[in-house]
Amino acid sequence: MRPQSLTARVLLVSTIWAVSSLVVIGIVISALYRQGSERGFQDLLRAQLYNVINSIVVNENQQLAGSPQLGDLRFSQPQTGWYWIVEPIGEFNTPPLVSTSLGTGKLPIVSVDKVPFDIRYERFYTTRDSFNNEVEVAETEVVLDIQGHTARFRVAGNRNVLESDINDFNRNLYLALSIFGFGGLGMNALAILFGLRPLDQARRSLEKIRAGESERLDGEFPREIQPLASEINALIESNRRIVERARMQVGNLAHSLKTPIAVLMNEARVLEAPHGELLRAQADAMQTQVQTYLNRARIAAQRESVLARTDVEAALERLVRVMRRLNPERSFVLTVSPPGLTLAMEQQDVEETVGNLLENAARYAVNEVRITAMPAPEAPAGQDSARRSWIVIDVEDDGPGLTTEQIALAIKRGKRLDESKPGTGLGLSIVREIASEYHGAFGLARGEGGGLKATLVLPGVS
Q1: DSSP letters for 226-255
Q2: Backbone torsions φ then ψ of 142, nearest 5 degrees
Q3: Residue 327 domain boundaries
Q4: How many domains is the chain partitioned into structurally?
Q5: 172 located within any domain
Q6: Is residue 346 part of a domain?
Q7: Domain-terminating residue out of 165, 187, 204
Q8: Mean pLDDT of the chain
Q9: Alpha-carbon torsion (448, 454, 458, 460), positive or negative
Q10: Checking CA distances to 128, which of 7, 142, 270, 441 falls within 20 to 30 Å?
């Protein structure tokens, strides 16, 4: 799964690259040090081999003689893994000379077929002595005198010394690389976070715009990001102008259609039935359709606007104050929890939807109308609760309520269940249309007290 955060992505890639580089560097340095150490170890054995060669002669009894002084106590201490051996070859019949450290032990010889001599007639190989020490052996063959007496010279060194030195170096190397790596990763993380701060600042500014706390992308940005910030501000301004222009055009259209439709309805009242009734019905249908599509056009123009924000508590308090003045005999109880809820809607649409519900509730309530606003427990069907928050607004009265069949009829466009009450029957239909245009939901149900409970689920601001 790819990380969604740009900071996490850059940190992940840079961390993988840094760790991989340090691992490769550690392996290469360790290999080079081992190669150099083994070469130095062989050079040491070669030097000791030449010292032994210079110390050995053939005496007058045609015997090997000499006592090499190599300046290393390990050649005189038993079973140390540091030995020298001089052995006669061919018809040269003489006892071999060995170092004190080897004593009566043996040092196996590797076949020349496996490890041949080089151009200097030397060879190096690894074997184990009689004491199970792993040793590196330097070997050569030398003609000692004019009679052709030849001897094999071998000097062995304990490889544990070499491996111990290499292991100590590797521990120090990996410790140093680890300290450097952690320090480098920390500095790298700080550098990335510092470098990406302008993007984080832009993100916070965009969140403020989405929350309605700001109308433009504010702040000073580096020259790589400034063009993007300028374009976003220009887009927001263009969006605001489009919304204002659409709102003005819809208002002009509504005003221009209102008068002709009113004239038709007045004429319908004058005409006798059945022509008058037919004309009035068609004028009502025309008014309904015009109002519906005007609402849709206006809402569509501003539905996705980042500037459409309405404080729930403030908007509902204004509506409740109006309803209390218009219906002094009714009690209106408002509850908004938690405070600070914000709808991603135009204030006009909020007031129209909730206002219609309050008018309907006040018309049928006996004593009390309760209005409740809170975060919705889940998103409407087909909507994603992770993408945005949702707010549920309940308007409940203590009136007679409706049956299930009546509820189904009540939300039909222009349908009035009680002809004795004033109104056009368009209120609930308008509420449903506006809620639908904002991808919300609207429903009616029987309240706990037996009255009608209207529920709106509308988009909020996270």
Answers
A1: HHHHHHHHHHHHHHHHHHHHHHHHHHHHHH
A2: -130, 135
A3: 310-459
A4: 3
A5: no
A6: yes
A7: 165
A8: 83
A9: negative
A10: 142
The verdict on residue 7 lying in a domain is no
Q: Are residues 110 and 146 in the same domain?
A: yes
Alpha-carbon gap, residue 175 to 318, rounded angstroms: 70
Residues 6+ apart with CB under 8 A from 277: 268
Contact (Cβ atoms closer than 8 angstroms) between residue 77 and residue 131: no
Question: How many whole angstroms separate alpha carbon 214 and alpha carbon 237?
Answer: 12
In a domain, 217, yes or no: no
Give the lowest-confidence range in 245-254, 285-294, 308-317, 414-423: 414-423
Q: Residue 68: is the preceding peptide bond cis (ω within 30°)?
A: no
Q: Which of 302, 323, 349 is the last residue of a domain?
A: 302
Closest CA to 371 of 457, 459, 455: 455
Same domain, 253 and 370: no
Nearest to 139 by CA among 80, 53, 68, 36: 53
**391 and 362 share one domain:** yes
User: What is the pLDDT, as a whole number, of residue 424?
Assistant: 42
Task: Give residues with Cβ within 8 angstroms of 389, minimum separation 6.
Answer: 375, 376, 459, 460, 461, 462
Q: How far is CA 366 from the centre of its chain?
A: 55
Q: Which residues pair with 88 in a beta bridge?
A: 151
Looking up residue 339, the CATH number of its domain turns out to be 3.30.565.10
Instruction: Identify the helix (H) or strand (E) that includes residue 123.
Output: strand 122-128
Q: Residues 372-418: pLDDT tens digits?
A: 999 998 888 877 666 678 999 999 999 888 887 887 777 664 455 45
* For the chain, percent of residues with pLDDT exceeding 90: 35
370 lies in the same domain as 446:
yes
C-alpha dist (Å) from residue 93 to 87, 149, 153, 174, 330? 10, 9, 16, 54, 133
Tell me: do 139 and 237 sit in the same domain.
Answer: no
Phi-psi region of 68 (alpha: psi -120 to 50; beta: other; left: phi over 0): beta
User: Do 78 and 135 fall into the same domain?
Assistant: yes
Q: Cα(343)–Cα(239) distance, rounded to whole angstroms? A: 19
Q: Round to whole Å and give the CA distance between 333 and 317.
A: 10
What letters, b where the CB count within 10 A reaches 16 and e where it falls short, cover 344-355? bbbeebbbbbbb
314 and 283 in a single domain? The answer is: no
Same domain, 320 and 352: yes
